[in-house]
Write a structure and sequence with these properties.
Largest sheet: none
Order of helices and strands: HHHHHHHHHHHHHHHH
Oligomer: single chain
Helix content: over 70%
Strand content: under 5%
Shape: globular
Radius of gyration: 24 Å
Structural class: mainly alpha
Length: about 450
């Protein structure tokens, strides 16, 4: 076993109260390679390595220093304490409208289950007639497309008609895609069962469990832990709240000062954009790491603990890799597993591995651009260029060289992370500034008329 696997094994011993032998762990992986009881890599590293725990403490200290810096700045410049609350309040904006959109998405996801039950009840009688069953399959696929079209189309139409604040828009659009992927996973797994093939359909309780479970791959059963550790749940939610403040401090103190006046001038110099990009590199990487930790470590582990979901391997140690192919598989295993099972594997035998890989990258980049365009109110395909073009080109470049020169290409990957996040953050601020400029011009036109 590698050092990380060894620490994960010791973490499993601490979690269950008794150790499993290596042979038992190996047999368990053979039985179900997709899911098993295991902790997240960072959970294992923080619990078992004093060095990683010290790095964690360093990030906590940085948060405290940003807090003190913001408090002092607010007292000196404004005479009152803000501590980033204005950025958070502006970011979430109209929470009521965002909550209503999420409730619509959730009701569509719940409505899918009785529709599936009704389809299965009719399908058992239709299967006796081959021609009728073929038409019934087409009817089922059409119904699924309509339901997912409504789930995705209505929020997109609503957000395009009237802009919603950034954080609320990101939440609504990410949940839109998450629930659509959940429905698709259940439909693919349970479609043949509607005609009496395979085990019976899942219960409503298990379906709701899957809706909230931190996975996009459907199974009739998941490995479960013995109990919910509510102290761990509370700790992870505190981490989520702390990271929200962390990002608000980064934006207010290091990013917004460079972009607050952007777009107000009649002409923008190229040097201003370049200087802003380099100014956004370090806070951009910090924001990227905070976002990764917030969603894939704190948020998903909190829900896994509440639901006693045993498999916490939501990501792997992507920070050590020297190949982009492994990075894309390791950085977000939750989404990667869905793309692998429901996009890459069905396409690869028909279109080939190269074209299937390109389709996966294109769909992923397009989904990211939809989230950003609806959240900022402006289409600016920087992320699509980085994912769909540069990301694909990096696969063959680092495939062999990454193995031959792991240290050099790990350095190269981190360099690309720094510049990539700086570019994305610059583009996001530029699109936000342009959006505000356009709105200001439209308001001026309306007032003059």
């Amino acid at each position: 076993m590698t050092s990380l696997d060894s620490m994960r094994y010791r973490g499993k011993e601490n979690y269950n109260g008794k150790a499993k032998s290596e042979d038992a762990v190996h047999i368990e992986k053979k039985i179900d390679p997709e899911f098993s009881i295991r902790e997240s890599p960072l959970t294992v590293l923080i619990e078992n390595s004093l060095h990683i725990r010290a790095i964690y403490h360093i990030f906590v200290v940085i948060l405290l220093m940003l807090f003190f810096d913001t408090v002092i700045y607010d007292l000196v410049e404004r005479g009152k304490i803000n501590v980033g609350l204005s950025v958070i309040a502006y970011g979430f904006g109209d929470i009521r409208r965002g909550a209503l959109l999420w409730l619509f998405e959730f009701m569509i996801a719940i409505l899918f289950f009785p529709a599936l039950k009704l389809y299965a009840a009719v399908g058992k009688h239709v299967e006796k007639y081959p021609r009728a069953s073929q038409g019934f399959v087409i009817l089922g696929i059409s119904g699924l497309v309509f339901l997912e079209g409504a789930l995705i189309g209505v929020p997109i139409w609503n957000l395009s008609q009237k802009h919603l604040a950034l954080a609320s828009s990101v939440t609504v659009t990410c949940e839109m895609f998450r629930l659509a992927m959940k429905i698709h996973a259940v439909a693919v797994a349970c479609g043949p069962r509607c005609f009496g093939k395979g085990p019976p359909l899942p219960s409503f309780q298990h379906y709701v469990y899957f809706i909230f479970a931190p996975t996009l791959v459907y199974r009739d059963q998941y490995p479960r832990t013995k109990k919910t550790r509510w102290g761990v749940v509370l700790f992870h939610f505190i981490e989520v709240a702390a990271i929200i403040f962390y990002n608000s401090f980064l934006w207010e103190r290091f990013i917004l000062p460079y972009w607050s006046d952007y777009g107000k001038q009649s002409r923008v110099e190229a040097g201003t954009v370049v200087r802003g990009m380099f100014a956004c590199v370090l806070p951009g990487v910090l924001s990227f790491l905070c976002g990764f930790y917030c969603v894939l470590q704190a948020w998903l582990n909190a829900f896994a603990e509440i639901l006693r979901f045993g498999d916490r391997l939501f990501y792997e140690d992507w920070w050590t890799t020297s190949r982009f192919s492994r990075y894309y598989r390791a950085w977000n295993r939750v989404v990667y597993s869905w793309l692998r099972d429901h996009l890459y594997k069905p396409l690869a035998p028909r279109t080939g591995r190269a074209f299937s890989t390109f389709i996966v990258f294109f769909v992923s980049a397009l989904a990211h651009e939809v989230v950003l365009a609806l959240s900022f109110g402006f289409f600016y395909p920087v992320l699509m260029t980085e994912f769909g073009v540069l990301g694909v080109l990096m696969l063959p470049l680092t495939s062999t060289n990454g193995r031959r020169f792991p240290n050099v290409f790990n350095l190269f990957m981190w360099l690309s992370f720094f510049f990539g996040n700086g570019t994305c953050l610059t583009a996001d601020n530029e699109r936000a500034a342009r959006m505000l400029k356009i709105r200001h011009e439209l308001t001026s036109i309306k007032e003059s008329v």
